[in-house]
Amino acid sequence: MRRCPLCLKLETRLFFQDRKRSFHVCSHCALVFADGASHLPSNAIRQRYGRGGSLENQRQLPQFILPLLQELQAQGHNQLKGLNYGRVLDQSSLAHIQATGHELWQYDPFMAPDGESLQHSYDFICCFRVFEHFGAPHREWQLFTRLLKPGGYLAMSTRMLSDPQRFNKWHHKNNLAHVSFPGKATFEYLASASGFRLIFAENDCILMQKPSGSAIKRDPNTDPAV
């Protein structure tokens, strides 16, 4: 039995195994995750993703962030401060955001390992196609919860496991750098456990809002010092 890397529960079981890896599923938060013994070493991940990842994902990143900003602006949110976590936006799109009066910080462990960006509070956080790379997603979730201002938005894009019965045929799992596979129920769990409002989780896109004031719940599995 493996401890779930997201909710930290031991309510897990072997889910699937192939010649390269074994995968487990958590009955508490519904996360499917690769066995930690099969995770790629950091230098191998750096070689694969050290230049920003696939060109397709880099092209799609502005199409994910810019519409979010437009929607928040339409709701009356002006001069927003956001964090783009896990990838680096191209300079043209970044300049466009800044020209509209917003501020966007970026953090990527290879392309932009700026520790200062993880010391601020943000109106929104974007996380595009990186959740699947989180070997310890509990750690990132606690980070996002800490960095978001009350009432702030968390926007994520990741391939969601919609049909567990077809996991064996799902090509997304074959990338050895992909180790965490959430489903809609996973984000429903996160929202419920943290007091977030799950606005939607469809078509591989997730939008959540942190509550305002004292409505925030503390995860009983969390070390208060983290």
UniProtKB/TrEMBL annotation:
SUPFAM superfamilies: S-adenosyl-L-methionine-dependent methyltransferases. Gene3D superfamilies: Vaccinia Virus protein VP39. Keywords: Methyltransferase, Transferase. InterPro entries: SAM-dependent_MTases_sf (IPR029063). Pfam families: Methyltransf_23 (PF13489). One of its GO terms (molecular function) is methyltransferase activity. This is Methyltransferase domain-containing protein. One of its GO terms (biological process) is methylation. It comes from Shewanella jiangmenensis. Coiled coil: none annotated.
